[in-house]
Amino acid sequence: MVREIKAIVFDLYGTLIHNSNNTPYLRLFQELCLSPEEMKQAKRIAITEDFEDLSGLVKRIKPNVDIDLQPYQQEVAKCVESANAYPETKTVLEELKKRDLKLGLISNLASPYKKPFFNLELDKYFDLALFSCEIGLRKPDLQIYQKMLYQLECKASHCLMIGDKKHCDVDPPRALRMQAILIDRNVKEGLSIHSLDEVPLYL
């Protein structure tokens, strides 16, 4: 059983919330005819720099290109609007706050995808939220976890990370001697939890 937890840090998508639409960013990058290396760079830029809309992103990636962005903008809007919390999310967060635990959030995302966090009023539960597009860092970079620990004023061994991607949400925090749990809602991984309802059992 996990001991001496003073802070819990969550991933966002696939952990606290989900949406029903796929992001159109990859298809946009393909239409821009990016090389494999340019594609990799474009993905990094999309989630580590803050853009009001896709036009700013496209100008940053490929200046002077002429492309109709309206269909992509509409898809992004639909994706954002479709986002919803998992059924147990708010109940679990409320219980954790009652236990006087510090709560943090670390999410790799492009700027538009921050909105559901606030629209669903999840922000009221958290002491700190770090979005990759705002701070210029992305998981699995250890610096983003170190920043969280520093700002929460919490020792690594007293902090628990919960997320749905092993290479981003489990391996890096464990490298810093944080505790970490994989949430696998599809029950593909044996050493994992399958719902946020299981989180309090580890405290």
CA-atom Rg in angstroms: 18 Å
How many distinct helices?
A: 9
Shape, please? globular
Helix content: 25-40%
Low-confidence stretches: none
Strand portion, in percent? 5-15%
- Briefly note the structural class of the backbone: alpha/beta
How many angstroms separate the termini?
7 Å
CATH domain topology of the largest domain: Rossmann fold
Order of helices and strands: EEHHHHEHEHEHHEHE
Number of domains: 2
CATH superfamily of the largest domain: HAD superfamily/HAD-like
**Quick one: how many beta strands?**
7
Give the neighbour order of strands across the main sheet. 5-4-1-6-7
Mean pLDDT rating: 93
Main sheet characteristics: 5 strands, parallel
CATH class of the largest domain: Alpha Beta
Q: Can you tell me the CATH architecture of the largest domain?
A: 3-Layer(aba) Sandwich
Write structural notes for this entry.
This protein has 203 residues and is an alpha/beta fold. The protein folds into 2 domains: 7-19 and 84-202, HAD superfamily/HAD-like (Rossmann fold, 3-Layer(aba) Sandwich), CATH 3.40.50.1000; 25-82, no CATH class. It is 40% helix and 13% strand. The protein is built from 9 helices and 7 strands, in the order E-E-H-H-H-H-E-H-E-H-E-H-H-E-H-E. It has helices spanning 25-31, 36-48, 54-61, 70-82, 89-98, 115-119, 132-135, 142-152, 166-175; strands at residues 7-10, 17-18, 84-85, 102-107, 128-131, 159-163, 179-182. It has a 5-stranded parallel β-sheet with strand order 5-4-1-6-7. A two-stranded antiparallel ribbon has the order 2-3. Helix 6 (115-119) links the parallel strand 4 and strand 5 (128-131). The radius of gyration is 18 Å and the shape is globular. The model has no long low-confidence stretch (mean pLDDT 93).
